[in-house]
Amino acid sequence: MAVNHWLIVTSPENIATTRDLGYTMQGIKSRHRKKAERMQPGDRMVLYATGRQAFAFTATITSPYWEDHTMVWDGRKKGEDYPFRVKIQPDVVLPEADYVPAVTLLPALEFPRKWPAEHWHLAFQGNVHLIPEADFARIEAALRAAEPAAAAP
Q1: pTM of this prediction?
Q2: Contact 91/144 with Cβ under 8 angstroms?
Q3: CATH architecture label of 5-146
């Protein structure tokens, strides 16, 4: 089965919540049930922090989705509880200070080209998007390059 590559757009606060969970689970907004249903173990995801307009981390999905209405992530819309959830395993995780600004990758990415260059940010509206594998690879490579050097022993 083909691997899908997902772009999850959410607030820096919700990314911090996922971090606090040990990058073990990610929630999807209620209006994206059909996309959540398509998520399968082995699919990859990259999280984009709104406001910061930057990429935060990549992960591999390790479970089919399930529905749970326990409030974990804080939806800006009252009652939004990100009910569709998948287990994840972190791949490349950056500290918030090192997130990779999306604007630095725009010339190399295919999916934002659907919008006029001056409105590139429209590519990052909405919670869930399928993106080309090549775009995912470019984003993940940039995240790896931005990883802080390992501390010397």
Answers
A1: 0.92
A2: no
A3: Roll (3.10)
